[in-house]
Structures are given as structure tokens and as C-alpha cells.
Design a protein that fits this description.
Layout lengths: L1 E9 L2 E5 L5 E3 L4 E4 L16 E6 L3
Antiparallel strand pairs: 1-2, 1-5, 2-3, 4-5
Length: about 60
């Protein structure tokens, strides 16, 4: 399942902000991609951009 939202950082920790304003804490259990499907690093250069997350399969 894919979830779309805006990448934001609070106290240097990455979160996905959903349209409804809910924040999802991101960690290594998620695959984070830009809207073109390219995997991205969780750094502040992507802050404020739309991203897609998927749960990584173990």
C-alpha cells in the first residue's frame, strides 16, 4: 500500500504529513520515494516536497 504526503522534519526527525494534517513518523521500515518512483534519502533537502511511502517487506 502506498501513502502520499509531504515530507516534513520536526526536531530533525522525518515525518510524512498527510492531507488531513496527521503526522506519520518515518523510520527504516518504510521505503520513501519521490513522485517519479525514485528512492530518496530522508534528509532536509526534500522537506516540503510530496513523497510516497510504502512499508518495507521483511
Amino acid at each position: 500500500m502506498e501513502t502520499f504526503g509531504t515530507l516534513t522534519f520536526i526536531n530533525e526527525k522525518p515525518f510524512l504529513e498527510l492531507e488531513i494534517g496527521e503526522l506519520v513518523a518515518l523510520n527504516n521500515s518504510f521505503i520513501v520515494e519521490d513522485l517519479n518512483g525514485q528512492t530518496i534519502a530522508l534528509n532536509e533537502s526534500y522537506a516540503g516536497k510530496q513523497i510516497v511511502i510504502r512499508k518495507a517487506v521483511a
